[in-house]
Design goal:
InterPro entries: NADH-Q_oxidrdct_subunit, NADH-UbQ_OxRdtase_su21_C_fun, NADH-UbQ_OxRdtase_su21_N. The protein is mainly alpha-helical and about 160 residues long. The chain has five helices and no strands. Helices cover about 55% and strands about 0% of the residues.
């Protein structure tokens, strides 16, 4: 199954990056976005409570904890998406290109190892997870399968 060619402003590194590869390519700015989102959710809830008190005797602490968990999940998904965009070549990816070249030279690219799946199932896994990062808000779906449908950067 050929991988569809796209015109991207930056070099393509991987069309369907493995979960480990995406997380390993998080930048400090991604961690900052994740932490900021985690703090913003309960912060916004607290400010809304101050502006218009609910006067609930119990339960506000539970609401703050739930808001913190939701903020952490949402922040992780947003950071994951930002990292995926760099691997796809949709945003600036110079450090990722260098890291991909170094990993390829060392032979340790996550997601491009041996797979226990048949070639047909690898194709199914690729078709199910390709560009799934565009709809993480609807259904968080990650590529956790090693398959042969990755396209290394053309600059290699």
């Amino acid at each position: 199954m050929p991988v569809k060619e796209f015109e991207t402003p930056y070099p393509l590194i991987d069309t369907d990056p493995h979960f480990k590869r995406v997380v390993n390519n998080f930048r400090p700015s991604d961690y900052t976005v994740w932490a900021g989102t985690t703090a913003a959710f309960p912060g916004a809830l607290f400010l809304m409570e101050q502006a218009s008190p609910t006067r609930a005797r119990r339960g506000f602490g539970t609401s703050l904890r739930l808001a913190t968990v939701l903020g952490a999940i949402g922040g992780f998904l947003y950071a994951y998406q930002r990292s995926s965009f760099r691997l796809w070549g949709w945003s600036e990816n110079e450090p990722e290109q260098e890291r991909a070249k170094a990993d390829a030279a060392a032979g340790k690219v996550p997601g491009m190892g041996e797979s226990r799946l048949s070639p047909e199932m690898q194709g199914v896994a690729f078709r199910n997870s390709a560009f799934s990062q565009l709809s993480l808000a609807v259904l968080p779906w990650f590529n956790l399968v090693n398959h042969k449908y990755h396209e290394p950067s053309k600059s290699e």
